[in-house]
Amino acid sequence: MASLESAKKLAAYKAVDLHVQNNFVVGVGSGSTVVYAVERLAERVKNEKLNVQCVPTSFQARQLIIQHRLDLTDLEINPRLDVCIDGADEVDCTLTLIKGGGGCLLQEKIVASCAKELIIIADYTKNSHKLGEQYKKGIPIEVVPMAYLPIKTQIENQLGGTVELRMAKAKAGPVVTDNGNFILDWKNFQDYKWEAINTKLNLIPGVVETGLFVNMAKKAYFGLADGSVKEQI
């Protein structure tokens, strides 16, 4: 049985091997599985002399790129990416994603939207038939700080479930994103038509972005416990 870390590595390596070519501009996602993707990307750049430029989706991603001595760029220089490789908190049977458990959903969605294809890498625990089946921490929603309570109330009244302000672990008070915003986590939700719900949430004044990625991912790779990799399109 492969460990979760081994499963993450299997998925990450396969995605980088199949979806990154010479002279590509690559969006680098955030999270624990992406660590292995950057590791593999650095190996390929060294061994194959690839020319690859990397656009980070977060402070963490930027540090990974720098640590592995990869070429760092941004959307102002390269507004069009060949591919974005990122993780997910949960992936349903239609490739709808929950992202933002690490608080980077806004920048992740911006970078993904600039890429020709979004490739998801994850271990088998992130693969569900429907959202909320395995991931119980909720759908993250990045909000302007002054509006968090009205937004929380509106979501609970109109859509049900419970909405919690995400609190920081090592500081007093709420989590503050790289963009200076708060994060609400919407839990105990129903099985909705997510494209319509995503639009509805984004229309609430003060909502900056949601962690629902609908019709964005082209393919997902899941590392399995038996050492193989499942592909989902």
Folded structure, characterized:
By secondary structure, the protein is an alpha/beta fold. It is built from six helices and 14 strands. It has helices at residues 4-19, 32-48, 59-67, 105-113, 148-159, 194-202, and strands at 24-28, 52-56, 71-72, 83-86, 90-91, 97-98, 118-123, 139-143, 162-165, 182-187, 207-210, 212-213, 217-223, 229-232. The strands form three sheets. A seven-stranded mixed beta sheet has the order 3-2-1-4-7-13-14, with helices on both faces. Strand 5 (90-91) and strand 6 (97-98) form a beta hairpin. The radius of gyration is 17 Å and the shape is globular. It starts with a helix and ends with a strand. The model has no long low-confidence stretch (mean pLDDT 97).
Topology:
Blueprint (H helix, E strand, L loop, with lengths): L3 H16 L4 E5 L3 H17 L3 E5 L2 H9 L3 E2 L10 E4 L3 E2 L5 E2 L6 H9 L4 E6 L15 E5 L4 H12 L2 E4 L16 E6 L6 H9 L4 E4 L1 E2 L3 E7 L5 E4 L1
Parallel strand pairs: 1-2, 1-4, 2-3, 4-7, 7-13
Antiparallel strand pairs: 5-6, 6-12, 8-10, 8-11, 9-10, 13-14
Helix pairs in contact: 1-2
Compute the number of strand runs: 14
**Fraction of residues in β-strands:** 15-25%
End-to-end gap: 25 Å
- Tally of contiguous helical segments: 6
Radius of gyration equals 17 Å
From the structure above, extract its key features.
alpha/beta; seven-stranded mixed sheet
